[in-house]
Amino acid sequence: MAHTQDEVLSGLAEIVNEIAGIPQEDVELDKSFTDDLDVDSLSMVEVVVAAEERFDVKIPDDEVKNLKTVGDAVNYILTNAA
Amino acid sequence: MTTENRTVVVTGIGAFTPLGGDAASTWEGLLAGRSGVRALEEDWAADLPVRIAARSAVEPAEVLPRPLLRKLDRSAQFALIAAREAWADAGYEQPATDEASPLDPERLGSVIASGIGGVTTLLDQYDVLREKGARKVSPHTVPMLMPNSPSANVGIEVGAQAGVHTPVSACASGAEAIGYAIEMIRTGRADVVVAGGTEAAIHPLPVAAFASMMAMSKRNDEPLRASRPYDKARDGFVLGEGAGVVVLESAEHAAKRGARVYCEAVGQGLSSDAHHIAQPEPTGSGVARALAQLFEHTDLDKAAVVHVNAHATSTPQGDVAEIKALRKELGEHLDHVAISATKSMTGHLLGGAGGVETVATVLALHHRQAPPTINVEDLDDEVDADIVRFEPRELPQGRIAALNNSFGFGGHNVVLAFRTV
């Protein structure tokens, strides 16, 4: 089932809130996971695994380094989700 | 580096124990003679021969934010909470790495020990691997399960750059950490060290494993009466969990900043049994050698020792061997020593024991009160010493000293000495 951008963004916001404790409203498309959202490289793995499950998408390890902002992740998920 | 011989003092204390979520409530529980032992109500305990333990009085989730809980093993959670308390209690308001800090981070260390490390993380993540697959194993698993994790996390928290260490010696680990920290300051490697012990091993595997060694009390129907050091009917230790942490500081450094000083950390005595991997040497000769070493290498006067926080875990052999060693080394002075076995109330915190019991020893000197040993209804005839029973005992005025004993599987013997200033 195709997701809308808003659905993916709000889903990611819930995941980032659960893992890093950042308020959901602060998780915006232009925010950097590392610099703005207190998601370090280990916690990013948690975010990726949770997103894979939630959006039924595979995010290969090689791809994770390209997901610098929330917008990068949203676009990847919209493009590649089943 | 020249080897110095500097005086070390205690300027901060913190505890997270089965009796309370901080040092004050723990101390109150000890003086009241309250047992922290409870029945294990979890489903997993139903089929185990041992179904009692001393859980922490407060859940870390009530204190720490969720993102931190996800990244820290329970043992590191305990250590961090106790270390924060000790750090603030010592009068420090920020990490040493903060620009506003008056403390040089390169002169600050962290030495927090654990006997077993992140065992619940290891076992829980193995369950995840088997049930959900490799992809679901937490990326925090390794930094959570490594035994140096509590020390490293506390070191990051306070900004310690002089060294972060983790001695491991089973149930002597916490005391060995504090001894190591005393040496770091005494010899000039650091001015301030955050030191202590932590343990979180209440999980079916460690419980089953200790039970299968016949090391634990099976008094499942009477949890409050299960930990009973020195009593004739004692039948093993009760597993506890928690952490105790102190801030140690060179006396000069503490004086310069006008810090409140609880007492002096005089030094340590160390030895090993070379006897058996899990049995205490029955005559207490190894413990006696640790005591002898303490008196040989410090200026501590035997006559000044008025209180011992004993290792006394409530096992048939160990409790008596320790008393024999104290009698051998202290001789008739032992008649004037008030001995407390606080494990009768907290249970045995393994690597956390030396930390929590150091906090108790420091407070005993500070308040000049020795906590009671509960459940000694019928004192073992072989215990030829003055056990504080039923209620707290007032300690004498003047410059007095107290010992904290900790011994571990493997034959590790650690004696720490503290003295009023």
Describe this structure in words.
The complex is a heterodimer of chains A (82) and B (421). Chain A is mostly helical and 82 residues long. Chain A contains five helices and no strands. The longest helix of chain A has 16 residues. With 421 residues, chain B is of the alpha/beta class. Chain B is 33% helix and 18% strand. Chain B is built from 13 helices and 14 strands. In chain B, the strands form three sheets. In chain B, strands 5-4-6-7-1-8-14-13-9-10 form a ten-stranded mixed sheet, with helices on both faces. In chain B, strands 2-3 form a two-stranded antiparallel sheet. A two-stranded antiparallel ribbon of chain B has the order 11-12. In chain B, a hairpin with a 3-residue loop joins β13 and β14. The mean pLDDT of chain B is 97. At the A-B interface, α1 and α3 of A face α2 of B.
Short description:
The complex is a heterodimer of chains A (82) and B (421). Chain A has helices at residues 5-20, 33-36, 41-55, 61-64, 70-80.
Number of strands of chain A: 0
Largest sheet of chain B: 10 strands, mixed
Tertiary shape of chain A: globular
Strand content of chain B: 15-25%
Rg of chain A is 11 Å
* Major sheet size, sense and barrel closure of chain A: none
Average predicted confidence as pLDDT of chain A: 94
Q: Quaternary arrangement of the chains shown?
A: heterodimer
Radius of gyration of chain B: 20 Å
Uncertain spans of chain A: none
- How many strands of chain B? 14
Helix content of chain B: 25-40%
